[in-house]
């Protein structure tokens, strides 16, 4: 299978609506007096002329999914995937007939009798392709008659009577039949998500233009957050589908699991997005002159047919519990994956068993190899790694539970000092950071303003060669054992918002500095720190006075590395959960049980967070920082952590609430993760604030 380049896929998607402009209009074609049958026949003719019916013969799954997603945006049920499957299973002769439009098949599951129910697009089809449940015969039978069955889908599904002449049968293996069902399911999910995505766009546009009570409705947080959640679900669906197609194109058998994760996500997310869009559109989107009702019908019609083509191996949770593999691996690019492989070899060969955490011997090993501050230049002890390589390295070290605190210093301080520190500061601090020998805490948050740096109240007043710092900082995690503080203070009281902020790096323990320790729910100690006219030398200033916001944001481009580390930590927890379930299958219950469905949901959400990080990293390398995608990944991952902790308790019982519970000895236990999960949602700006940030990037008004 040869993959199309991203720009080729983009061009293909952009042609769909234009090519179908004259043939298909959802309100008329889908919903008026049976007009959908003639319109769908016209659409099929367009598909033949455009070459879309050739995708099966060319084994072009990426092109199929791209066009099918765009068809969803038009609420158009053209069964391209059905023709794709027929061409793949029945050989070159049938593939040619499908390509030329002489055979126009719709897929149905195996069954007895000459009538098939719930057939989509029957009025424009010539044949029905029946898939066996396992190894057996695939049957291509002509449509003898059909009877529309009005309901939610539009155009209506039909009951189809099969003809008995010219029936073609062909034996297929169980694997071939399973792959065919996986393609059909992925296409249905992609089309449903395409329809939901279009509805989300309409709602977003409406939220920016519609005024109520003298304000655009998008300025109301309830509306803006609903739009953001829709964008997150759509972005995750796109990323999951892209990963499944990538693996299929590469010939990786894990593509079936990846596709099922995309299907599971769509089954939950597409209706959620669709309903959310309708709630924003309100009465305007409720009437059939609008696109939204037809998109609603498309979403629910497509998802309702998924059970007809259930995999023999079960849903994603079944594949994971009953198999030996975990979630499909992601690909951050050749250099990043080479760095990942190299690090795995290094850990296996050089790091003795039992050397974990922040052990000085471990820090020496990792520091000598440049892994603690991989993004720094080699002359300062790093590896000069790009963002994708840093993500791959961070994921591996986090999964193994190694040197978390040392790597936080490298990610938070290293980029800013490298970009804004003077030569003496770079020479002094960067080697310490790269060796994991710079324990510090952040002086950002304050009791009255939280993490809103635009309104921080701690001040630094110039006095000769010193600065005099006065104020209070809150939630300084690890401050009780830190040797340095990275402090943001207001140096120009007349400047507004982020202007007038300056950053300082100086030792703790200076006269006038004091701490008060607080033990958190997660078990770590965070501190309030007090500055009573603390005199700090000007040499501690990083960057020019008043340029603190630029200094602070130098590290924000590395935010996705922190997020990737968080998802890697969740991946380790999820793998630990799978290990427990595989050791005692009775805990996971039989197929179809609530426990299996829980595993499916957790897997889909975790893979969504991981794919969002991967896709945002790739986009960042191509076009610069992508704070919206990073924020989306943070929201998905942190909220998943809360739900994962709750789910583990339900699945494994009271033992999961103990420190020596089912995954005792792991980098993080189930119960510790549950307690920590609250902090993951609120730290760095609560998820409510994150949603506001994403809302701005979507163009919603303040």
Automatic annotation (TrEMBL):
The record's GO molecular-function terms, alphabetically, read:
flavin adenine dinucleotide binding; oxidoreductase activity, acting on the CH-CH group of donors
InterPro entries listed in its UniProt record: Acyl-CoA_Oxase/DH_mid-dom (IPR006091), Acyl-CoA_Oxase/DH_mid-dom_sf (IPR046373), AcylCo_DH-like_C (IPR036250), AcylCo_DH/oxidase_C (IPR009075), AcylCoA_DH/ox_N (IPR013786), AcylCoA_DH/ox_N_sf (IPR037069), AcylCoA_DH/oxidase_NM_dom_sf (IPR009100), Mycobact_Acyl-CoA_DH (IPR052161)
Which intervals hold domain Acyl-CoA dehydrogenase/oxidase N-terminal?
A: 334-436
Write out the entry's keywords from A to Z: FAD, Flavoprotein, Oxidoreductase
Acyl-CoA oxidase/dehydrogenase middle domain spans which residues?
Answer: 443-534
What family, per the record?
Belongs to the acyl-CoA dehydrogenase family.
Q: What is this protein called?
A: Acyl-CoA dehydrogenase
Source organism of this protein record: Geodermatophilus sabuli
